[in-house]
Design a protein that fits this description.
The protein has 130 residues and is an alpha+beta fold. It is flat, with a radius of gyration of 17 Å.
Length: 130
């Protein structure tokens, strides 16, 4: 494993992501990081997010809206996506039944991980309609 040189920008990206629960895109993080580092480029944000994801320090996922989202939480959990406003919410893994029951036949190989998204309408959007 290679040794990484310390980067204030990378640390700032991690800290910003740690403080957020909205599962931001790279563009959203870029706008936040620019407040501290006005000269940072969007490419630098993308490269560091890719690196942090490859190192397993953050989670990167796409939930069907055409963009990648980032999450500081790396432990197993699920996401609820509001189809009305696009908000992404964490859902603890404990509220979902044993996922081994999802498979009705032996898979063609070893399953190392899986991704499950729940889509619907969040309470805020439901209340706006009432």
């Amino acid at each position: 494993m290679r040794t990484l040189k310390h980067s204030r920008q990378r640390e700032s990206i991690k800290n910003c992501l740690m403080q957020r629960t909205d599962h931001p895109t790279a563009d959203m993080l870029y706008l936040s990081i620019r407040e501290e580092f006005p000269n940072i480029s969007l490419g630098t944000v993308y490269r560091n997010l890719k690196l942090l994801s490859e190192l397993g320090e953050i989670t990167r996922f796409s939930c069907g809206d055409g963009s990648e989202h980032f999450d500081y939480r790396t432990e197993p959990h699920y996401h609820f996506i509001c189809k009305t406003c696009g908000a992404v919410y964490d859902m603890p893994a404990e509220i979902v039944r044993d996922t081994s029951e999802l498979l009705t036949a032996q898979p063609p190989g070893r399953v190392d991980s899986h991704t499950v998204f729940f889509y619907g309408e969040c309470k805020t959007c439901q209340q706006k309609k009432s």
